[in-house]
Description:
The structure holds 2 protein chains of 2 kinds.
Chain A: E1 3-15, E2 20-32, E3 36-41, H1 47-54, E4 62-71, E5 74-75, H2 81-87, E6 92-95, H3 99-102, H4 109-120, H5 125-139, H6 155-167, E7 173-177, H7 185-202, E8 205-210, H8 213-219, E9 222-227, E10 230-236, H9 237-241, H10 247-254, E11 270-288, E12 293-308, E13 311-315, H11 322-329, E14 337-342, E15 345-346, H12 353-362, E16 363-366, H13 380-391, H14 399-416, H15 435-448, E17 453-457, H16 465-482, E18 485-490, H17 493-499, E19 502-507, E20 510-516, H18 517-522, H19 527-534, H20 540-543
Parallel strand pairs in A: 3-8, 3-9, 6-7, 7-8, 13-18, 13-19, 16-17, 17-18
Antiparallel strand pairs in A: 1-2, 1-4, 4-5, 9-10, 11-12, 11-14, 14-15, 19-20
Helix pairs in contact in A: 5-6, 6-7, 13-14, 13-15
Chain B: H1 5-11, H2 13-35, H3 65-101, H4 103-118, H5 121-131, H6 136-163, H7 166-173, H8 178-186, H9 191-214, H10 225-234, H11 237-240, H12 247-271, H13 273-284
Helix pairs in contact in B: 1-12, 2-3, 2-12, 3-4, 3-6, 3-9, 3-10, 4-6, 5-6, 6-9, 7-8, 9-10, 9-12, 12-13
Amino acid sequence: xxxxxxxxxxxxxxxxxxxxxxxxxxxxxxxxxxxxxxxxxxxxxxxxxxxxxxxxxxxxxxxxxxxxxxxxxxxxxxxxxxxxxxxxxxxxxxxxxxxxxxxxxxxxxxxxxxxxxxxxxxxxxxxxxxxxxxxxxxxxxxxxxxxxxxxxxxxxxxxxxxxxxxxxxxxxxxxxxxxxxxxxxxxxxxxxxxxxxxxxxxxxxxxxxxxxxxxxxxxxxxxxxxxxxxxxxxxxxxxxxxxxxxxxxxxxxxxxxxxxxxxxxxxxxxxxxxxxxxxxxxxxxxxxxxxxxxxxxxxxxxxxxxxxxxxxxxxxxxxxxxxxxxxxxxxxxxxxxxxxxxxxxxxxxxxxxxxxxxxxxxxxxxxxxxxxxxxxxxxxxxxxxxxxxxxxxxxxxxxxxxxxxxxxxxxxxxxxxxxxxxxxxxxxxxxxxxxxxxxxxxxxxxxxxxxxxxxxxxxxxxxxxxxxxxxxxxxxxxxxxxxxxxxxxxxxxxxxxxxxxxxxxxxxxxxxxxxxxxxxxxxxxxxxxxxxxxxxxxxxxxxx
Amino acid sequence: xxxxxxxxxxxxxxxxxxxxxxxxxxxxxxxxxxxxxxxxxxxxxxxxxxxxxxxxxxxxxxxxxxxxxxxxxxxxxxxxxxxxxxxxxxxxxxxxxxxxxxxxxxxxxxxxxxxxxxxxxxxxxxxxxxxxxxxxxxxxxxxxxxxxxxxxxxxxxxxxxxxxxxxxxxxxxxxxxxxxxxxxxxxxxxxxxxxxxxxxxxxxxxxxxxxxxxxxxxxxxxxxxxxxxxxxxxxxxxxxxxxxxxxxxxxxxxxxxxxxxxxxxxxxxxxxxxxxxxxxxxxxxxxxxxxxxxxxxxxxxxxx
Lengths: 544, 304
């Protein structure tokens, strides 16, 4: 078969203060004509480094130390600057994750497409204009948007513009580096269908980079699985789907949450609400000064209860207001209308140092990004010992006894969140631990207060696939063992169904659907929930 | 990034030179005056050119220029460094309160910062310095009063951004007090910005202090670098061509500022990892590195 791109024994090093780090280690794969090749890996596995190496836009301290990259039999690694410049975009183009970063906010869409074409080929003004119109038709955007600025378009539309620019010079290979990760599930599906339709029509090849194995298995012809800079498995989607040839592929396949309700839901829920939210409204001040203010309503008449020993899944796409609810419930944000009652006490009545601290003891939070929620300058010991000092009365102990008590408590909490052996973690800095371990430390910090409620704001979305299920299971175990109620915020309805007793679906600040998990999956009450569930079910591409 | 930043600073050759220059002058300022206890004493005929007896020559008053230059360093550097520190500390305090608490407090403090930024600095400094009793501490307070606003503004915006980080929210939810969050969670993350603000402020305060004293607004009987220049013009050094009365002092001022600027290069590299990465590649492969070019290919082993 005709090969468009051949990568042979590619190695890339990142130079460091002392020595170097092998980011890509002897990787070989090839992409055939008119093929969709998926490259899957967790963060740090080297997949984005490969993309940048193919275009040779990898910045310092990266250097290519070995191998060949053949584009139609020409070695990209021995090309000079001018042939590189003509290769980029004309032969190989790229669509990146964040369309907003790829588009110039000051230029109209028209000018951005024209610039790309004119900088590579000499073409008359009329021809370039008709090419622009043609491209807009291809990606399914109205031609009138040519005169818009990027900020006037939605995320999905912007990504279509970027795809149009990538197609502008009819390249043989388009690299898609997580093109849909920043989009919600519904537009993700639309964009991918569009890309595949165009591929069929124009006959280019696709190198699709993603961390989402479930997504890539839907439509890729072949898939490569990367781990720690090595390509551990390459095969057709079918083979990978049924477990692949490597242990790691199998582990990834098994960690995809299936859309089914949890096994023992609703059994031990006590119908005794801890939190009662009625008619909650929040307006964000867009522009405020001493004299005037304008606002945007982000929460509109939100009402729900959280019972003792219950997990609620709060599902919605970005901008639906789910994180705002978390911030209001933890008193990080004020709210304008409605009532939030906590064990019968109105949240806005909790004032003063004493009662605020008492409130902090009852509700704790785990954040999305375990890199950002642990301060990089503190060790695990200093993070957790602060928590212990705040929430335990140790002031009557001597200094030595106190240190002993802190250490004892710390070891027990670390083993409770599944870090073993616990004593090896005490003096580690956040950057010395993996994402999953950091998230466990975050959870340990929340648990020290012995809270009645934990709010988990997308606790698994930044984690690698293989550890996601472990963290979800840990949350379920805590609920069972410690009788903690959990509000689980997520954009992924499958993981919400897996863990929650009840699900609330949010859209643009409003609750559109709610009910027990199995009921929501089996017969969703709102067209939006149905859409979410459909795009989660496997086989949506082949169904088309 | 924050750990080992001192050793990282010393690794950078530019900042190493800067640190040596600045510490050289600080050591001179500390021990020098003990060797020249009376810099104002009449030692020889006025306006003698540099010779073996008086290495830097003598002033129009017949004083030894070397003695005056060394003795002047103590007051000038002390006032400069402490004014720099106070300016940054005041800026940090006001900027942190405004950035952390936001809302009405921020509105009022930002207004105050803007008013101070808009006031013409030099005329205000001259007026206040003329109004206060002459002396180094008056100069110090003038410098702090007119200099804090810029740092407050810069540091406020950094606090504003750090305040939205998850680890700050996490600390608040855990029950930490606001004071503790600012001091233990936010300030340590700003160390490189605070240090470079301090260096910038010190360069400014030394220059402004010398300028005010040159205009005769300090205590002219004290020996400082600014007063040295004031007396040099008073004795018509330029007209008589006696360059040795002002060049040594001027050179010292320039060298201290130069040294401080060099230290800033090192801080730049700490707070901007990209500069460090470029240096690493440039040092290892000097002939291949091209900042705007394609990723370099260096085959360490023959391709298999």
